[in-house]
Amino acid sequence: MSARLLPEGRTVRMGLIGLGSMGRHHARVIREVEGMELVAVADPVGDRHGVAGALSVLPDVEGLIAAGIDAAMVAVPTYLHEEVALALAEAGVHTMVEKPIAATAESGRRVAQAFESAGLVGAVGYVERCNPALLEMRRRIAAGELGELYQITTSRQGPFPARIADVGVVKDLATHDIDLTAWIARSEYASVSGQVTHRSGREHEDMVVATGRLRDGTIVSHTVNWLSPLKVRETVATGELGAFVADTLQGDLTFVANGDVRSEWERAATFRGVSEGDSIRYAIARREPLRVEQENFRDALWGRPADVVSMAEGVHTLEVVEAILDSAATGHTRTL
Fold first, then answer.
1. N or C: which end of the chain has fewer CB within 10 A?
2. pTM for this one?
């Protein structure tokens, strides 16, 4: 069923539910984006960051819907995503849900189906897709600048985020890397294997190392934790012509070309490898990823071409997340 879009150029009446660590940033950005107006906010525990301004803080999603909104941003804890999103779908409200789409893949499928059946725009907030370094990496890979893609590796490490209470590091942080990897390669996951540790005394895992293979044959690995004093956000794509290295903390992208590996040693002549060649650090226009994400959502509501993360993609990412956790629990590689 096709989406019931808004007339292009008409101001989108936005509602926001969840005024916590992410919600407060969404409130600011929505107010800044041309063509959007924040007309209602809701949070059952109030406005602890003081972002509502002149708006009344409504107690629940029903109050948000009653305000006459066109679209909503859902930034409540993960376990509430399905309940809130289904209410918005039933009310005919276009919605972007912060990642992950829901607490489980089964729950996510119900959410995705509800928006599809209602003919509404449903999106998931994977803001890393709007990081300038990753956008440029994906564009250059698609243009053939890496040749055949062989491998994608990610490292996402740092101190524990106090905002998290209801999920572990896989659903909170590794979900970013799973989504961006499939997006960069333009290929879904075929199989995954994972190892996790519980070192902090919390119910959920706080470290994960995961490896896998995409359907196109690209091999991948992810190192993710929130118990490191060193903050790292790096994505490396390696192919037949060299490697792209994205520092997503700084929004920097570097290309390291393969060097000349010819050898005069007869005994080494059969070895086919590479050496480090020329390196280029690209000058990239840097825009706030969260703002780009909301602009993409607005454009999707107006029927413009827009790189939003579909709810179906959000479900696939959650299926991979669950496969990693199952692999860690059972010791077996999981096929998707």
1. N
2. 0.91
